[in-house]
Amino acid sequence: MKEFLKRKDIEISLKRYGIDALGAMAQGLFCSLLIGTIINTIGTQFHIPFLMQNVATVAGVDYTVGGLATAMSGPAMAVAIGYALKCPPLVLFSMITVGFAANALGGAGGPLAVLFVAIIAAEFGKAVSKETKVDILVTPLVTIAVGVFFSWLIAPPLGKAAMSVGNLIMWATELQPFLMGILVSVVVGMALTLPISSAAICAALGLTGLAGGAAVAGCCAQMVGFAVISFKENKWGGLVSQGIGTSMLQMGNIIKNPRVWIAPTVASAITGPIATCIFRLQMNGAPVSSGMGTCGLVGQIGVYTGWVKEISEGTRTAITAFDWAGLVLISFVLPAVFSLIIHAIVKKLGWVKEGDLKLQ
After folding, report:
1. pLDDT at 246
2. Cα angle vertex 334, ends 167, 29, to 5°?
3. Least confident interval from 196-200, 207-211, 235-239, 319-323
4. 291 within 8 A of 198, measured Cβ to Cβ
């Protein structure tokens, strides 16, 4: 069995499923749901007729250009997961159907259902790939059959469970914005820096609203925090690569000296409750944006698209100067200021030395 699994490149491990597959799922969401949301927002804000009008009607449902991209989120996630699991071509292409089925049956918690179902279907598909003389029939048939079966079997309960957990977090944040602001900000922010996908976690849980705002704050604190405290060692290249790229670049230094993580993490514990209690910052755009922070400014774009959606729904009258001030302060200014102050204290205590944050 070990030889067979090795030959098929089936690796049952936390890294393969919890890091590689989860991270790829987030990329699939970026290329479908998130991009579709951005396209719709651009069309609405700049009054671009082609982006606002319906370009297709499928089964009585009208779709804009952005709507078409959003509708493909299930297949996009599944194909991305299949790619991360190194699926052969026939398995990879069959994942389109698997993703569509899992996302549709998973309901609002579809991303989590897609993650589990896609992994199962991909590994079954890889197991039978090129084992018969009629591979072009057997491999897609097995991959799709397994995927659809498990979509029917586990996608609905997984979707409901994910939404229940997400709703619980959002309800608790509304009830206790200070404590939950700290908790959500710190946990999601640390997940962003660790080699797992905070964006995929937020998407799987459907984390929006005030809890989504706290998540944005935590992610920004990690990215901007590491960018500014390591500026002396990494200069402008490090500032950009961490500030709008990813704080995950510091994982090697964190492993060598975990104390370098103190400043951004404490900063996230401060900015989280400021976001929830003072500015009432909410993420009502795509949930995946909650776990992105300043990466490509996706977190900020997500907050903005949420504002636009609220205005169109009549729940918000306008975007105020206070809204913009909160977004800028929580995303950029406060993380930088708090991280620099805390890092100076940490260095004075001798816990962090020059060169500890140098990127290789």
Report:
1. 86
2. 40
3. 196-200
4. yes
Taking the CA atoms of 37, 227, 330 and 162 in sequence, report the sign of the dihedral they define.
positive
Rama region for 79: left / alpha / beta (φ>0; ψ in -120 to 50; rest): alpha
Q: Is 15 exposed, middle or buried (0-12, 13-18, 19+ CB in 10 A)?
A: exposed
**How would you class 319 by CB atoms within 10 Å of its CB: exposed for 0-12, middle for 13-18, buried for 19 or more?**
middle
Are 45 and 309 in contact by the 8 Å Cβ rule? The answer is no
- What would the pLDDT profile of 17-69 be if each residue is shown by its tens digit? 988 998 899 889 888 988 888 888 888 888 899 998 999 998 889 999 999 99
pLDDT digits (tens, 9 = 90+) for 223-266: 999 999 999 999 999 999 999 888 988 989 999 999 999 999 99
Query: What is the rounded distance in angstroms from the CA atom of residue 352 to the CA atom of residue 161?
Result: 42
247: number of CA atoms within 13 Å, CB side? 33
- What is the sign, positive or negative, of the torsion defined by CA atoms of 339, 341, 347, 349? negative
Tell me the one-letter amino acid at 289. S
Strands (E), the chain: 56-58, 61-63
**Phi-psi sector, 23: left (phi>0), alpha (psi -120 to 50), beta:** alpha
- 66 contact partners, CB below 8 Å, separation of at least 6: 35, 36, 37, 38, 39, 40, 41, 43, 51
The DSSP code sequence of 32-65 is IIIHHHHHHHHHHHTT-HHHHS--EEETTEEE-H
Give the span between the Cα atoms of 236 and 232, in whole angstroms. Answer: 9
Residue 360 CA to residue 352 CA, distance in Å, equals 17
> Is the pTM higher than 0.85?
no
The pLDDT-based confidence of 360 (bands split at 50, 70, 90) is confident
Q: How confident is the model at residue 273 (pLDDT cuts 50, 70, 90)?
A: very high
Which one, of 52, 57, 156, 35, lies nearest residue 101 by Cα? 156
